[in-house]
Amino acid sequence: MTSIFARLKQVVSQSSKKISSGISNIVLKRKIDRQVLNELEDLLVSSDVDPTTAAEIVKDFAERKINKETSPFEVKTIFAEKIAEIMSPYEGALSNLNQPLSPYVILLCGVNGNGKTTTAAKLGAFFKQYGKKVRLVACDTFRAAAVDQLKIWGERLGMPVSFAVNSSDPAALAYDAFTAAKKAGEDILIIDTAGRLHNRDDLMSELEKIKRVLGKQDKNAPHEVLLMLDATTGQAAIAQAREFSARIGVTGIIITKLDGTAKAGAVISVARTFKFPILAVGIGEQPSDIQDFSVKEYIEGLLEIDGNERK
Ligand SMILES: Nc1nc2c(ncn2[C@@H]2O[C@H](COP(=O)(O)OP(=O)(O)OP(=O)(O)O)[C@@H](O)[C@H]2O)c(=O)[nH]1
Ligand SMILES: [Mg+2]
């Protein structure tokens, strides 16, 4: 049976061939000793699993298999169980965002070029298929091309886009868009913001201001602050998550560009370090190229195992 998550598994496994073949090369015809364990740990780290997590995975394996023989399949199965245990608390879903609040305000943030605007469109398309009325807000007000980009998505998806004329203050635009959404009885407000480096204090203050003015109309708004993390960034995603979280209180992560990376293991570190749910992954450039994050599919892709085989 083809799982609805098959594409996630497929894209992760395309970028993770190294782990699977690496395990076979390391464990075939050898007893599990310290040397083998070190090689397995190095393999995980070189596939961008963070060192603490890699050590934990291998320690668990060592407790069960030291001085014994094993097979690549058994290694992968034991690794899979441990990674599942580590990651399952952080498995989120886009449907978590489908709340009966009108409008439900979702603020998107992240560093430059990591997929915020594309994800705004993807989220818009996701909610629209449930019959929700969605408004997009182009809070990247200083860059004309950024506004145009969101306007084009709005036209394609058939949803209104709020934008400012004359590079106005993004916080003022967010405030006005919220008012407009309430007036029009819309369900979801998706606010796209400019890319900003997490260490730029002035730009982070601008984001705080956007959040603050939304809170003036509804003390719980924005209801979600979603951080886009580009999977190709690898471990740098950790520093970004730390800063955005400290400044504006991130409520969830969307991992973008998972289709283009050999560094998919970084997802593990981000999830556990910050205890944020990973709500979705971006796996392409089109509005439909987004899906819930499934720990099971992610692991099966990462280690190239078949869930049915394990039963
Ligand atoms: N392959 C792939 N490409 C993506 C994905 N998400 C976004 N992109 C591409 O990445 C590039 C940047 O995406 P944007 O959505 O413009 O990124 P942004 O964060 O809005 O960028 P700034 O506004 O400049 O900070 C575009 O070419 C997108 O098509 C994804 O999940 N997979
Ligand atoms: Mg953008």
Descriptive labels:
311 residues, 8-stranded mixed β-sheet, alpha/beta, 2 domains, Rossmann fold, Four Helix Bundle (Hemerythrin (Met), subunit A), binds magnesium ion, binds guanosine-5'-triphosphate, 8 strands
Walk me through the structure.
This protein is of the alpha/beta class. The protein folds into two domains: 6-90, Four Helix Bundle (Hemerythrin (Met), subunit A); 94-301, Rossmann fold. It has twelve helices and eight strands. The protein has helices at residues 6-14, 17-27, 34-46, 51-65, 72-87, 116-128, 144-157, 170-183, 201-217, 236-248, 266-274, 295-303, and strands at 104-109, 134-139, 161-162, 188-193, 224-230, 252-256, 278-282, 290-292. It has an eight-stranded mixed sheet, sandwiched between helices. Strand 5 (224-230), helix 10 and strand 6 (252-256) form a beta-alpha-beta unit. Helix 4 (51-65) crosses helix 5 (72-87) and helix 6 runs parallel beside helix 7 (144-157). The longest helix is centred in the C-terminal third of the chain and has 17 residues, at 201-217. The chain is elongated. The model has no long low-confidence stretch (mean pLDDT 88). Guanosine-5'-triphosphate binds at residues 110, 112-118, 140, 146, 195, 256-257, 259-260, 282-285, 289. Guanosine-5'-triphosphate binds next to helix 6.
